[in-house]
Design a protein that fits this description.
Blueprint lengths: L1 H18 L1 E2 L9 E2 L7 H4 L6 H17 L3 H17 L10 H14 L9 H12 L16 E3 H13 L3 H14 L8 E7 L2 E8 L1 H21 L15 H23 L22 H15 L5 H23 L2 E3 L2 E3 L21 H4 L10 H22 L1
Antiparallel strand pairs: 1-2, 3-4, 4-5, 6-7
């Protein structure tokens, strides 16, 4: 089964490379992904390009290279990093949005584990820019520069980044703030807090990807704390004296277990297929939300220590959500020239992106009533993320 999911992930990679990948304005040694297929001239010239979608495209390229590293894949990652850098006018920190920058820094740090990649001053500057954006009064990041909205989209990926780059205390401070302020009664994570003249206002919307980033950050923190007290991967934490860090690791793992159960209860079908909430869109930025969630569910399924019955049950539940979602999405795909087009809703059939933005062909399209979600790169990247997550879970189960 592991080989099946790996092959399907290869097909997802091939589909996006065939339809979306191209040089930036024909420049050698660059690679970016057009944000729609078939693309309009604004998309092939990258006037319309989306900084954070490119970061997730880069992350998917790295997933494929982690699965099977090849010279072609590593070169494509280098070219994509260069494409993002050049398209950003060689100023990656100019972007006002801290979530965008955190996604890029996260992906870039993952690339450092591949042969031929090393830390650069541009990456260090990007990380420092994110760190320096933390608000002194709240201890967390605003959504964007000079903003008074403090939300999970910015702080979730930043907390993962900080935990992975040796800033564990800062990561803990962010995640603790989320747990203290943004837990809904149903066990899911709310969106953020907006500072008003009359006091803070909780923005209580629930988004799928916010659950994923909080899972990811909590897992990184818990594993780092276990390592600090000398625990092996699956060694029971009760076998050690309960130092502050050992107890703290249990705190984050308990939150992981609770959050995975809430996701299964409120964000998945009875079969276990992840679905968007009514307030979420299935296109544009929203097209990435499900894919981000399953990436970190797969992390839980593979990396959560098997040191208790509760953890083993959580790992199994996270794995079931990933595999059930992947099976459903694969069942509902389309194929064009032997390569898949993934549905924006993993429980429904994909639609052919026939409205190519080359001019409306019907009155409905002319007045903007028809839009095919599957045309968006974000939707197809979510599908690729899901298949990479399924391949990772299946490979771990086969070991």
């Amino acid at each position: 089964m592991s080989e099946t999911w790996s092959h399907r992930a290869d097909l997802a990679e091939a589909a996006i490379q065939e339809r979306h990948a191209m040089r930036l304005l024909g420049m050698p040694r660059t690679n970016l992904a057009a944000v729609a297929w078939p693309p309009s001239w604004r998309e092939t010239t990258f006037l319309h390009w989306h900084y954070w979608w490119q970061a997730h495209y880069l992350d998917c390229l790295i997933d494929a290279a982690y699965r099977r590293s090849t010279k072609l894949r590593r070169r494509r990652i280098q070219q994509t990093l260069r494409g993002i850098y050049v398209r950003s006018r060689r100023k990656l920190t100019a972007n006002r949005y801290y979530d965008d920058k955190s996604w890029l820094a996260l992906a870039w740090n993952r690339a450092l584990k591949l042969d031929g990649f090393s830390r650069t001053k541009q990456l260090t500057a990007l990380e420092f820019d994110i760190l320096s954006g933390i608000d002194n009064s709240t201890g967390v990041l605003p959504w964007r520069r000079n903003e008074t909205f403090f939300n999970v989209p910015s702080n979730g990926p930043a907390a993962i980044l900080f935990a992975r780059t040796g800033r564990l205390d800062k990561s803990r401070e962010i995640v603790d703030w989320i747990f203290d302020n943004l837990m809904a009664d149903n066990g899911l994570i709310q969106d953020g807090i907006r500072m008003r003249m009359d006091g803070p206002e909780v923005v209580d919307k629930i988004y799928t990807y916010n659950q994923g980033t909080v899972l990811g950050a909590s897992l990184e923190i818990a594993l780092a704390l276990r390592q600090d007290v000398g625990l092996a991967k699956d060694e029971p934490i009760d076998s050690f004296d309960h130092s502050e860090r050992a107890d703290a690791s249990v705190f984050y793992i308990t939150h992981i277990r609770s959050l995975v159960r809430a996701i299964a209860r409120h964000l998945a079908t009875p079969r276990g297929v992840i679905v968007c909430l009514p307030e979420e869109t299935h296109d544009g930025d929203g097209g990435l939300f499900q894919g981000i969630l399953v990436r970190y569910l797969a992390d839980v399924a593979v990396r959560l220590p098997e040191d208790s019955r509760e953890n083993i049950a959580t790992k199994k539940l996270a794995a079931r959500l990933v595999i059930a979602s992947a099976e459903s999405m694969w069942e509902h795909r389309l194929e064009v020239d032997g390569l898949p087009i993934f549905p924006s809703d993993w429980t429904k059939d994909a639609r052919l992106p026939h409205n190519y933005s080359l001019g409306p062909s019907t009155l409905g399209e002319a007045v903007g009533l028809v839009r095919i979600n599957e045309r968006d790169l974000s939707v197809q990247l979510s599908g690729w993320k899901l298949l990479e997550a399924a391949a990772k879970v299946a490979a771990a189960a086969a070991e």
